[in-house]
## 1
Amino acid sequence: MTKCPMCSTKMKTEKKELEPGVYTTVEVCPKCADEWIGEKEYQKLYTLFKRRTFKVGGSVAVRIPQELANALKIGSGDEVKFTLDGKKLIIETS
């Protein structure tokens, strides 16, 4: 996309932080401030935030993407705390 579909102004490419430590490339209209993301970036983000569970011994496990682990400043062997909020699983650093 080179022109804003709303006002036809030339778009500018910017790097935007969506979540702490998670960045993507967006096109921004300097006139109307609308932001657009391309299909390739969308697919990258979709796969980043969606994971499949797997079995490890008697437990169910899920891998945390490195980008999110970096944002939380957690690594292998670090202790984390789990809490539930309705159907949401919340992972907090200890």
## 2
Amino acid sequence: MSKKTIGIVVTVLGLIGLAVSLLADYIGLGSGQVEFGPRQLAAIGVSLVVTIVGVVLLLWKKKGETKKPD
């Protein structure tokens, strides 16, 4: 699997995790209160890190690598 494909997959998984974390109370995974708890904040942080890693993998080029024409 190419680094670009891995970057796309990791980015999408991070974004899905971020969406679930942000909407946890509304979709019934949270405590029922409309406020962020410590677990929800931790999940948001982890999801953001995963998303950033995915974007970095997606955009990272090797030294001396040039973009190939489509």
## 3
Amino acid sequence: MATDLVGGDIFVQTVILLLHYDETGAVGLVVNRPTEVGMDELVADDDAISAYSGPIYWGGPVQMNSLRALMSTDKAPEGAEIIIDSVYLVPVTDALENAPQDVPDLRLFMGYAGWAPGQLDHEMAKGSWHVVPASEDFVFAKDPGELWKQLVPPREHRAQRSDESDQVLTSALNSSQLPLSSASRTR
């Protein structure tokens, strides 16, 4: 169940890697929701894309008809944007042509999560998000379905913004995990 402040159930127990965060807004990818959707259901005309056999992740509710790729590599691919350490946002076709067989080091995402200017700051100030530094291990977790449970500290009182890095991993707090004291409730 999402906290009352997040609203709805779209972001319940999600872990989001922020790709872009500044005064114009924020963009991220949900990294812990693999789907059952196959590449053949998305794109049939591109051989490199249709040959991909790994899972497609639900990246968020915005532009569900778009694909994004994250790749873990020590060498930056051409046209790639570094996100953290050795994790790059790469053009999907380039990613698949360069590493189609290396599925553990490549993640494809349908859609993305987006916030208008100030919206994420407002949600964070209200305690809707827990913030931790991002890592390659989180983004490419072997069991992404368990990632949220691993990241949410027990008895978390309020989420706070971390200004150490623009690239942070965030997780929606489940209201059932909030302490029951009136001082720490988010309602």
## 4
Amino acid sequence: MTDSAPPNELVTLTRCDQLIAAQLLCGRLGAEGIEGFIPDENMANQTWHLSRALGGIRVQVRQGDLERARQILAEPGALELDAEAVPEKRPNGLHEDDDGTIGPGDRAAYRAMRVALVSLWLMGLIHPYSLFLALRALARKDLTRWGRRRAGIALAVSLLGCGWMAMLILKLATSK
């Protein structure tokens, strides 16, 4: 993220595996006079079991408060992240190649994964579309490791869904 961004623009400070960790971090930031936001709070409440698959729960702060918030996050005990879920983390909880923002490539991968997961509930009707989105996301050059993992999940789910649909269609065609 560039330093020329408006000071009131929201930027992602970190991602948490659990909603309670994100809420505790927002409380810690609030105690220091920094307003924290959890844009994924409703999603995390309703689909708590998918929060890791969807990339975690974002904690955002205003651009003007980002440096102070990173200092608070770097303090011991500010946020305990699961070491298995986030390997190779820096003291602020982010990967080496991750500044906490989601770029266009990662957004495309995230969208592909969401469509693939929703297609599971729709009995595979949109798996071809999610397959298209996953392949398009994987072809992007601005994809980070985080986005590549989401696009890979979307690709696997979509391929399985398309295979399942093809098997059903073949079975219906041969049963007549």
